[in-house]
Amino acid sequence: MATVVLSEAEKVYIVHGVQEDLRLDGRGCEDYRCAEVETDVVSNTSGSARVKLGHTDILVGVKAEMGTPKLEKPDEGYLEFFVDCSANATPEFEGRGGEELGSEIANTLCRVFSSESTVDLKSLCINPREHCWVLYVDVLLLECGGNLFDAISVAVKAALFNTRIPKVRVLEDQEGSKEIELSDDPYDCIRLSVDNVPCIVTLNKIGYRHVVDATLQEEACSLASLLISVTSKGALTSMKKMGKGSLDPESIFEMMETGKRVGKSLHTALQKILDEEESLGTSRQKVGFLG
Amino acid sequence: MAAVSMRLPVARKPARPSASRSGEKHLVAPGDTITTDTGYMRGHGTYVEEEKLIASVAGAVERVNKLVCVKALKTRYNGEVGDIVVGRITEVQQKRWKVETNSRLDSVLLLSSMNLPGGELRRRSAEDELAMRDYLQEGDLISAEVQSVFSDGAVSLHTRSLKYGKLGQGVLVQVSPSLVKRQKTHFHDLPCGASVILGNNGFIWIYPTPEQREEEAGGFTTNLEPVPLSDREVISRLRNCIVALVTEKLMLFDTSILYCYEASLPHQIKDILKPEVMEEIVLETRQRLLDLEG
């Protein structure tokens, strides 16, 4: 993770500020920075989204490809996550420097989405045991400004909402061999339901309190953090503790409660934006990267 | 009570031509010809090729009699003697510290250019060299003045006055060096209740105004007591105002920061960073600055 070096006095100032619920930029402990979400930014993907949370910039592209189902789940499709930490974000990611962080994020996303109810995988099946849709979710880290996991999970949810999988028809010949026909109409597609897709909320413990959406400076002052993934209904799907410090069970419980509360507001705000963007339809002015 | 605000991105509007511009600025990009007249001397940011004066950086052309130079908007800090800078210690070496000042090379603070605690003047001994880390460690912030510039562009700093030295509790904001206006003094005690150091290298340090002024130990003992909430609010508001001014590319000096602070008072501190509030506040600041000039 990109880190900034701070002096002792700066760290003390930040910690005391968090105790009084006033962070460096005036936010409270449970406030997020202003986020910008845009979908359909990459034209050659099935779905894409870009999220800017303060100085953190994430781009997610989803590509739907035909593949064979996994042996233990023959009538379901599946998702594959890949995270690329671009050297654009910080010089530490140059060459193979970003691989460790990238694989950590990809594994966390796999765990978060491993629960059965998150995405309806059965709808991705075409022919049981033979053909299914595989969704390759590629995450690109453009800028690192603290709170990577939350921004990435919001971008993944927005990209899955934007994903359009073409409708296929299975034709059977007289010999019994199956042929798959893709529909010609580019607008004839199936959409995924993202109602149960969870979002990750990272809670960093600073001093005796915890904060949501930490900046790089606040992350440098926090020794331990809790990552929880919450669905829009407030259900916890996974939890992970990060950092070299320790957390006592009471604070873990408090952080979970905060995470569930904040997670629900995060989902409401995101769904509102996605619906607003959808309602604009083709009249929406795409901003993209050169806006 | 969690506040999560998401929005759709809005395309940047092209900048309106400012009414206060005294003359049209000649903007160039790298490779643009500035003039084909051979009578001019080339300054920083230019080079001569085939009898044409060509710009090597993107910025505005400045002409002083026969000297033509190009001043870039976004650039690393180029040190000049007498500038006040705020820097962060990156390394502790044998008889000096390496300081990061947002320039092309790390700046240097020699042990002999540093004030000893108590203000004593004596030759630096071997014990002083061994105790260097007790004075300044990696990560510490200092305010210093540029003593000289080496031939390769690296800057040599000194803290030979009681007003320079290690900085205590506060907030650092990093901006582009070209946005900090050159003034007589860069240490300001703003009437709103906080003090600010506008480093020429683009590092702005906001800190609570210290109570006593008489006893200055050269700034080596850091006060780690909690800062009261009222001071914190002023500091956070100032920090957000400076970020707003920088986003709208306004020059930073004590009056502009103060006007921006006053314009932001009706809003909540965390709302200042919202794009529409930022625009409104900076517009009001610009208006007041124009009224001040005219």
TrEMBL record, chain A:
Keywords: Acetylation, Cytoplasm, Exosome, Nucleus, RNA-binding, rRNA processing. Coiled coil: none annotated. It is found in: Cytoplasm; Nucleus, Nucleolus. InterPro entries: ExoRNase_PH_dom1 (IPR001247), ExoRNase_PH_dom2 (IPR015847), ExoRNase_PH_dom2_sf (IPR036345), Exosome_comp_Rrp42_subfam (IPR050590), PNPase/RNase_PH_dom_sf (IPR027408), Ribosomal_Su5_D2-typ_SF (IPR020568). Pfam families: RNase_PH, RNase_PH_C. One of its GO terms (cellular component) is cytoplasmic exosome (RNase complex). GO terms for molecular function: mRNA 3'-UTR AU-rich region binding. Belongs to the RNase PH family. PANTHER family: EXOSOME COMPLEX COMPONENT RRP42, EXOSOME COMPLEX EXONUCLEASE RIBOSOMAL RNA PROCESSING PROTEIN. This is Exosome component 7. It comes from Eubucco bourcierii (red-headed barbet). The gene is Exosc7.
From TrEMBL, chain B:
It holds the Pfam family S1_RRP4. Keywords: Cytoplasm, Exosome, Nucleus, Phosphoprotein, RNA-binding, rRNA processing. The keyword rRNA processing applies. Signal peptide: none annotated. One of its GO terms (biological process) is TRAMP-dependent tRNA surveillance pathway. It is found in: Cytoplasm; Nucleus, Nucleolus. GO terms for cellular component: cytoplasmic exosome (RNase complex); nuclear exosome (RNase complex); nucleolus. GO terms for molecular function: RNA binding. Residues 80-160 form the S1 motif domain. CDD domains: KH-I_Rrp4_eukar, S1_Rrp4. Residues 1-35 are annotated as: Disordered. Belongs to the RRP4 family. Component of the RNA exosome core complex (Exo-9), composed of EXOSC1, EXOSC2, EXOSC3, EXOSC4, EXOSC5, EXOSC6, EXOSC7, EXOSC8 and EXOSC9; within the complex interacts with EXOSC4 and EXOSC7. The catalytically inactive RNA exosome core complex (Exo-9) associates with the catalytic subunit EXOSC10/RRP6. Exo-9 may associate with DIS3 to form the nucleolar exosome complex, or DIS3L to form the cytoplasmic exosome complex. Exo-9 is formed by a hexameric base ring consisting of the heterodimers EXOSC4-EXOSC9, EXOSC5-EXOSC8 and EXOSC6-EXOSC7, and a cap ring consisting of EXOSC1, EXOSC2 and EXOSC3. This is Exosome complex component RRP4.
